[in-house]
Specification:
Length: 67
């Protein structure tokens, strides 16, 4: 799960495992696999960075459990 910011400055948490696509036109638009659409202040590259950081921390946790 990652924290993002709506256009009205309200923060919310989104399940990044459910993201179908991320577009920039010009606002960053995130479409979920269930069809819900979120428009956020963060640029596409920051959203991708947050998703990668989340997934990295998840896999780091898994590998630490096996160690």
């Amino acid at each position: 799960m990652i924290t993002l910011t709506k256009l009205n400055d309200a923060q919310f948490i989104i399940n990044c495992e459910q993201i179908e696509k991320i577009e920039s036109h010009p606002d960053t638009t995130i479409t979920m696999i269930n069809g819900h659409v979120y428009i956020v202040k963060e640029p596409v590259d920051i959203v991708i960075k947050k998703v990668v950081e989340y997934k990295r921390s998840f896999f780091d946790f898994l590998f630490q459990q096996k160690g």
